[in-house]
Amino acid sequence: MTGTLSGRTALITGGGTGIGRGIALELARAGARIIVTYRTHTPDAKFAAQVQQLSGAGLTGLAIDATSETEVRDAMGTVKQNYGSVDILVNNVGGLIKRSAIADMDYTLWREVMAVNLDSMFLFTHYTLPIMTGDHGRIINIASLAGRNGGHAGATAYAASKAAIFGFTRGLAKEVAASGITVNALAPGFIEDTPFHDTFTTPESKAATIQGIPLGRAGTPEDVAGAALWLAGDESRFVSGTVVDINGAQYFG
């Protein structure tokens, strides 16, 4: 299989569904070998077959608790043994966990939100960097419009964790620049066909949000995947430390 990412290995965390799945398919279409991690959304046979057809290589799925240092460390040891190196890391794992006002939120829930959105990103980045190739090394962190505007009711902790991704992205971009690795973030707005909105957003809220999007529709995982593909390739090799907003002109950062 040939393509702009032919011969490169991409690791997408939380890649079994939604935005992660969309990115995995887009990178596979460009010829990359695909590894996805998952916990609750196991990659199905259709997804595996699509990756095989698009990239010419089988899908590797790793069942991991992305907030466990032991599990992430061991999984990356397996990746190193089987693949040697990783060219592209997409830190996509994340979640709201539960809507709660800060006044009502207990510390356990706060820590769960921070762990799934920030700890997971740190752990995968920390254990991937030693086996990441230089000239083609790409790290793409999935943030959110919530990090820009604070999100909807009950999402303050989630918004805070997503805003922190902006700082992590910019600081890391400086740290690894000498190695030729680029680090960027994507901040999707309202993206349908994802577990997030299926779980936490009512039909009425969805309709009201879409009505406020100037382009007149919700986004899709494919809309995010197109931007991820560009950041993963050689065309963006001088782009690092930036945040790309994907929200249909709903918000300008």
Layout of SSEs?
Layout: E1 9-12, H1 18-29, E2 33-38, H2 45-55, E3 60-63, H3 69-83, E4 88-91, H4 107-128, E5 138-142, H5 146-149, H6 156-176, E6 182-188, H7 195-200, H8 203-211, H9 221-232, E7 243-246
Parallel strand pairs: 1-2, 1-4, 2-3, 4-5, 5-6, 6-7
Helix pairs in contact: 1-2, 1-9, 3-4, 4-6
Please describe what this structure looks like:
- It is a single chain.
- This protein has 253 residues and is α/β, with parallel strands linked by helices.
- The protein has one domain: Rossmann fold, CATH 3.40.50.720.
- The chain has helices at residues 18-29, 45-55, 69-83, 107-128, 146-149, 156-176, 195-200, 203-211, 221-232; strands spanning 9-12, 33-38, 60-63, 88-91, 138-142, 182-188, 243-246.
- Strands 3-2-1-4-5-6-7 form a 7-stranded parallel β-sheet, with helices on both faces.
- Helix 3 packs parallel to helix 4.
- It is globular.
- The model has no long low-confidence stretch (mean pLDDT 95).
Keywords:
253 residues, alpha/beta, Rossmann fold, single chain, 7-stranded parallel beta sheet
Widest sheet, order of strands: 3-2-1-4-5-6-7
Q: Can you count the helices? A: 9
Rg result = 17 Å
Beta fraction of the residues?
5-15%
Classify the secondary structure makeup into a structural class. Answer: alpha/beta
Can you name the CATH architecture? 3-Layer(aba) Sandwich
Percent of residues in helical segments?
40-55%
Average pLDDT over all residues: 95
CATH-level-4 superfamily name:
NAD(P)-binding Rossmann-like Domain
Which geometry do the CA atoms define?
globular
The largest sheet, given as strand count, sense and whether it forms a barrel, is: 7 strands, parallel
Number of individual domains: 1
Terminal residue distance: 38 Å
